[in-house]
Amino acid sequence: METPTSARRLDRLPKAHLHLHFTGSMRHPTLVELAAEHGIHLPQALVEEWPPRLRATDERGWFRFQRLYDIARSVLRRPEDVYRLLREAAEDERAAGSGWLEIQVDPSGYASLFDGLTATLELFLDAARAAERETGVHVGLMVAANRTRHPLDAKVLARLARQYAGRGVVSFGLNNDERRGRALEFEGAFRIARRAGLLSAPHGGELQGPRSVRECLDVLDADRIGHGVRAVEDPRLVERIAERGVTLEVCPTSNVGLGVYDDLGQLPLRTLFDAGVPVALGTDDPLLFGPRLVEQYRIAREVLGFSDPELAELARMSVRGSGAPESLRKELLAGVDAWLAADPEPVGD
Ligand SMILES: [Zn+2]
């Protein structure tokens, strides 16, 4: 491919980030620093050998991914650690041109430290508001249940999320290993969340194929699906996703990092986009995979050949699929049009 002499800067393209997990958003130097402060020993995969080489397409690989994730979670001990994490995540969003961050939290993982589920969620909400004030990036929370736990635990979280609908919580998710815990078991929790006006945004179609995506659509009435990329294995399903306008949160470096695809060239982003499926690019867990949001757009441009009008459309789709308030959506969409209307800048650094 010819090297362009001018290009529109991807970090100036206004966008929204809809797939980022709380712990997985941590900066790597922050992990190392907090671990030292709290006297926590980190494995080599999180220090010299960072980012770790992972492969989660088998149970053992997923277990290793989860173990590293749990170690990372353990360095967040004090409320000020939570404030720091969200402030730095919002700073990284600002640097990537993102005006809306929807970050996934599961307060159960921290409830014993911070005095219960409600107090933990309130801490996250307060830290999100503080990050917003300091950076200008708007932050909404997705409360996400863990599918490896009992569906009744998910209902407890859905009722908690409901109390904060319209007050910082905008969506409800479902995460962890798709091979354990099918989406349809969580219908009750999602019904509670949807009735409260929260967006339904479960993970599906990452480690499992089309059936998991169908369950998200038909049983959980998904507005968005976390990943969903393996829907491409069933073209009729892709058509249905496009018809319903369900946004897929596609996370390129996560898919390759976890071995869902062997390399970036295999990502079905082009297939989904050309079929009219709304796609919002995301990072999932930059702490474990490395690259952040702007890199995902760079991959679309440089590896998958997306033109600037197509990249602008990806950014619009991220905004349209978000839980951001209407006024902010308008502002971001106008910014996307302005980005595309401006002349490319000379390349050089
Ligand atoms: Zn995820």
UniProtKB/TrEMBL annotation:
It is an enzyme of class 3 (hydrolase). PROSITE patterns: A_DEAMINASE. Pfam families: A_deaminase. Residues 14-339 form the Adenosine deaminase domain. One of its GO terms (biological process) is purine ribonucleoside monophosphate biosynthetic process. GO terms for molecular function: deaminase activity; hydrolase activity, acting on carbon-nitrogen (but not peptide) bonds, in cyclic amidines; metal ion binding. The keyword Zinc applies. Its cofactor is Zn(2+). It comes from the Bacteria. Its EC number is 3.5.4.4. Keywords: Hydrolase, Metal-binding, Zinc. Belongs to the metallo-dependent hydrolases superfamily. Adenosine and AMP deaminases family. PANTHER family: ADENINE DEAMINASE. NCBIfam families: aden_deam, PRK09358.1-5. This is Adenosine deaminase.
